[in-house]
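A quick aside before the break. I want you to see a complete sequence-to-structure record at least once, exactly as it would be stored in a machine-readable document. Don't worry about memorizing anything.
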Amino acid sequence: MVRAIKGTLVECDPSIKSIIVSIDSENNDLIIMDLDDSHLVVKDNMVAIMKERLELRLRETVPYVENDSDSDRDVK
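That is the input. The structure line, written in tokens, reads:
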């Protein structure tokens, strides 16, 4: 019997893809198929969870930089 899994094609930079693969390696619950350097097929019901985990990982590794470009201007 053939079993189908509904998936979503994800296109991203290779660096982001490597983070997603790393996240998936913890539980193997996200990725259905690794297609190439910038494409993955992710379980359709796990896309929102993947985004949350990715944002958390990025917050841990990339420092937040506030945009102060407007604060340098004098408004009158």
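Two observations worth writing down. Residues 47-61 form the longest helix (15 residues). The mean pLDDT is 87. We'll return to this after the break.
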